[in-house]
Amino acid sequence: MANRSSTSPEITPSRSRCIVEHDTEKLSFELINYMQLKGMEVGKFVSSPVCRVGGYEWEIRFYPDGLNKEYTGNTSCFLCYLGKDQDVRAKFSLSMQETKGLQAQVASFGTLDYAFTTGLNEFGYPQFVTTSKLKSLARFGDGCFTIRCVLSVSKESPPLELHDDLERMLEEGLGADVTFGVGGREFDAHRYIMAARSPVFRAQFFGPMAEKDMRHVEVIDVEPTIFEMMLRYIYNDKLPSCNNEGGGYNAAI
After folding, report:
1. Element counts in the chain: helices (H) and strands (E)
2. Is residue 175 domain-shared with residue 134, that is, in the same domain?
3. Do 30 and 134 lie in a common domain?
4. pLDDT for residue 36 is more than 60
5. Which residue windows are transmembrane per the record (predicted)?
6. 59 plus 34 within the same structural domain
């Protein structure tokens, strides 16, 4: 004969989470002979080849004569997001060094964190390096410079569909190893899942005073319909719609 026991359930709320991952790449954009780029006019830019990072397309934009007249005397440099349909958050840093010779560092900036949108798709430094500094370096070198960008794109993974899988097990009765008797009705369930969500069942199934191989539990002071909703909440972490019956369910929890 199967072991029997009686109890009144208590449920521990579950937790769900999203996992945020990052895809990081190093981009390089070589400027061949800066002196030939100088004089393109304010607001004109040259761009790097398009690079795909984190599932999105990006390019570096360099303005040899500055972004606009406000930044006359400076070059400007921006990271540009080329996506059309989705906003994306990224962290990136920009730097410049001489391409040949001593490969001296020309400029280096800290990491920026920015939420790119289709309307605000460029972010960076309108005062990147002064034109006088680059002309001076070009005069004593070959005038070639490399812009480097370390780009890290955030990718949010969707929550795991664990609750859907657990609810399917409940509905199909797959692997059920305990039966709950409630007001003349019986409900098949899984001891480990019930124990994980309820300290009462945890103690009853696996505590020091637990009966070995308990297969049947009589639940007292709970209506069958309320217990059925409570059982589904244990498996799928979803409350029923707010009505009289649902209100009684919430109170029972």
Report:
1. 7, 14
2. no
3. yes
4. yes
5. none
6. yes
**Structural domain boundaries enclosing 170:** 162-236
Which residue, chain included where needed, has tokens 């001593």? 102
Could you tell me if 29 and 111 lie in one domain?
yes
The per-residue pLDDT for 95 is 97
C-alpha 29/C-alpha 46 separation (Å) is 10
Cα separation, 113 vs 68, whole angstroms: 23
- Average pLDDT of span 19-25: 69
* CA 131, 133, 139, 142 torsion-angle sign: negative
Residues 37 and 146 in one domain: yes
Residue pair 251/242 in contact (Cβ under 8 Å)? The answer is no
Q: Over the stretch 120-141, which tens digit does the pLDDT of each residue have?
A: 899 999 999 999 999 988 887 7
| CA-based torsion, 47, 49, 53, 57: positive or negative | positive
- CA quadruple 104, 107, 113, 117: dihedral sign: negative
Report pLDDT for 157: 60
